């Protein structure tokens, strides 16, 4: 049976529209880092590299290589960890050119170093890209977190962040990091801005 993350991992990918706690396990990712306005071409190109690598893994059986433990699955959604430069932190407004980000796409548990090497080989042959050398594979464990489903424009996300901050303070938790994670459940190219669905997440300290 094909693994559908929205059906089989509902706690992670089907959140409520109110803040709630969850514990996020260690996960595997293809990642690439960048700086600047995500509406510009450089960001789009970096996203493209991640999808090239992710589909290289997904389609490996059609390329004559079947990883040990391979199963049919839906490619996971794009995610991003967002921060600001020192200059950006000192501004009284959000300058998107001062954004720092690590964008990523989660990979199934069967992905090993051997599979990663093969994915890069396939990606390089299929779509040579100078940015490929900046992409990397890693494991990340968010652990105890607070998340919420935000519906609408990315520019209105502060409304949802404020709800999470209130929840954290009211329940005597503390954020572990100043960064936050976003998981993009909608295709921005095909979805009306008012209907965009994005998971927002803060990592917090265990009591």
Protein topology:
Blueprint (H helix, E strand, L loop, with lengths): L4 H4 L1 H4 L6 E16 L5 H18 L19 E7 L1 H4 L9 E9 L5 H14 L9 E16 L5 H14 L9 E5 L12 E7 L4
Antiparallel strand pairs: 1-3, 1-4, 2-3, 2-5, 4-6, 5-6
Helix pairs in contact: 3-5
Q: Give the ordered list of helices and strands.
A: HHEHEHEHEHEE
Strand content bin: 25-35%
Helix content: 25-40%
Kindly report the spatial arrangement of strands forming the biggest sheet. Answer: 1-3-2-5-6-4
Using DSSP, what is the number of strands?
6
Q: What would you call the structural class?
A: alpha+beta
The radius of gyration computed from the alpha-carbon positions, rounded to a whole number of angstroms, is 18 Å
Q: Whole-Å distance between the termini?
A: 39 Å
Question: What would you say this structure looks like, in words?
Answer:
With 207 residues, the protein is of the alpha+beta class. The chain contains 6 helices and 6 strands, in the order H-H-E-H-E-H-E-H-E-H-E-E. It has helices spanning 5-8, 10-13, 41-58, 86-89, 113-126, 157-170, and strands spanning 20-35, 78-84, 99-107, 136-151, 180-184, 197-203. The protein has a 6-stranded antiparallel β-barrel with strand order 1-3-2-5-6-4. It is globular and about 55 Å long.
Which labels suit this protein?
six-stranded antiparallel β-barrel, 207 residues, alpha+beta, 6 helices
Concise synopsis of the structure shown:
With 207 residues, the protein is α+β, with helices and mostly antiparallel strands. The chain has helices at 5-8, 10-13, 41-58, 86-89, 113-126, 157-170; strands at 20-35, 78-84, 99-107, 136-151, 180-184, 197-203.
């Amino acid at each position: 049976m094909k693994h559908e993350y929205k059906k089989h991992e509902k706690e992670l990918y089907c959140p409520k529209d109110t803040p709630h706690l969850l514990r996020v396990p260690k996960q595997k990712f293809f990642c690439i880092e960048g700086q600047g306005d995500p509406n510009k071409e450089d960001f789009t190109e970096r996203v493209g590299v991640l999808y090239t690598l992710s589909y290289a893994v997904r389609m490996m059986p059609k390329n004559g290589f079947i990883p040990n433990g391979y199963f049919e699955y839906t490619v996971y959604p794009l995610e991003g960890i967002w921060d600001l430069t020192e200059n950006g932190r000192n501004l009284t407004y959000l300058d998107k050119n001062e954004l720092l980000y690590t964008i990523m796409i989660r990979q199934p548990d069967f992905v090993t170093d051997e599979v990663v090497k093969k994915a890069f080989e396939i990606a390089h042959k299929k779509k040579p890209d100078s940015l490929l050398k900046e992409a990397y594979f890693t494991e990340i464990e968010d652990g105890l977190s607070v998340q919420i489903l935000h519906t609408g424009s990315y520019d209105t996300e502060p409304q949802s962040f404020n709800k999470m901050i209130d929840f954290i303070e009211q329940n005597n938790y503390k954020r572990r990091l100043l960064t936050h994670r976003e998981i993009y459940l909608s295709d921005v190219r095909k979805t009306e801005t008012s209907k965009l669905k994005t998971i927002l997440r803060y990592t917090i300290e265990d009591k």
